Amino acid sequence: MMLCSPLLGALLTIVAGCLCLLKLLRHRGPREPPLDKGLVPWLGHAVAFRKNMYEFLKRMWAKHGDVFTVQLGGQYITFVMDPLSFGPIIKDTQRTLDFTEFAHELVLKVFGYRPMDGDHQMIHSASTKHLMGQGLEDLNKAMLDCLSLVMLGPKGPSLDASCWHEDGLFRFCYSILFKAGFLSLFGCTKDKAQDLLESEELFTKFRRFDLLFPRFVYSLLGPREWVEVGQLQRLFHKRLSVEQNLEKDGISNWLGYMLQFLREQGIDSSMQDKFNFMMLWASQGNTGPTCFWALMFLLKHQDAMKAVQEEATQVLGEGRLEGRKSFAFALSSLKHTPVLDSVIEETLRLGTSPTLLRMVQKDCVLKMDSGQEYQIRRGDKVALFPYLSVHMDPDIHPEPTVFKYNRFLNPDGTRKVDFYKSGKKIHHYNMPWGSGVSICPGRFFALSEIKIFVLLMVMYFDFELVDPNVPVPPLHPRRWGFGTSQPSYEVRFRYRLKPMHAVSS
Question: What are the residues facing 168 on neighbouring strands?
Answer without folding.
Answer: 492
